[in-house]
Amino acid sequence: MLKLVVLLLLPVLAAPAQVAVLQIQVIEGEGTVHTPGARNSRPLTVQITDETGKPVSGAAVTFHLPEDGPGGIFANALRTDVQTTDGRGRAAIRSFQANRISGPFQIRIVASKEQARAGTVSFQYIGESKGGAAAPASASAKASHQKRWLMLAAVAGGGAIGAAMAGRSGRSTTMTAPAPTVPAFGIGSPAISVGHP
Questions:
Q1: I need a surface site. Which of 27, 75, 77, 148 has the fewest CB within 10 A?
Q2: Would you say 93 and 62 are in contact if contact means Cβ atoms under 8 Å apart?
């Protein structure tokens, strides 16, 4: 009878322990500066470990790029890619096509195995292009808004303000407001003129 109880317990004892907690560490590719519009082959590599620091193999690791602004697409032509960790608990994205919008962005990383999940972000950057083509769309809208403001300031007689604002934007623009016209009018007799005779 004792042998039967021991034999029934053996499969339970031999079952692998479930992963309770996952930890993610970016071990390669953090803070990469990408060339606008270029394909980057420097991998973004993460390592997934359990609560004791032991590497977790077979975990699904999802990499997410932003929907708009600086970013790009992965080799699969999507903004999301899924990799599986190897025996060392590592997963990597090996190819990334940057868009032409300069600035910082984050790649969101989520790891999961069984019921355990973890998440982190990797900070990346798309540099400025030499010709200025990588300027964000918002910069051109801001410049257009500033030009409109300067024109309104000049028309309203604020030539000095318009010139000061133009100086702030790094442009040397000279604006002169037209001389105000005051209509001539007379008071009583003899006539007193105010304004242009």
A1: 77
A2: no
> pLDDT of 79-116, one tens digit each?
999 999 999 999 999 999 999 999 999 999 999 999 99
CA distance 33 to 25: 19
The fold for domain 18-126 equals Immunoglobulin-like (2.60.40)
Three-class DSSP labels, the chain: CHHHHHHHHHHHHHCCCCCCCCEEEEEECCCCEECCCCEECCCEEEEEECCCCCECCCCEEEEECCCCCCCEEECCCCCEEEEECCCCCEEEECCEEECCCCEEEEEEEEEEECCEEEEEEEEEEECCCCCCCCCCHHHHHHHHHHHHHHHHHHHCCCHHHHHHHHHHCCCCCCCCCCCCCCCCECCCCCCCCECCC
pTM for the whole structure: 0.59
SS (H, E, C) 65-77: CCCCCCCEEECCC
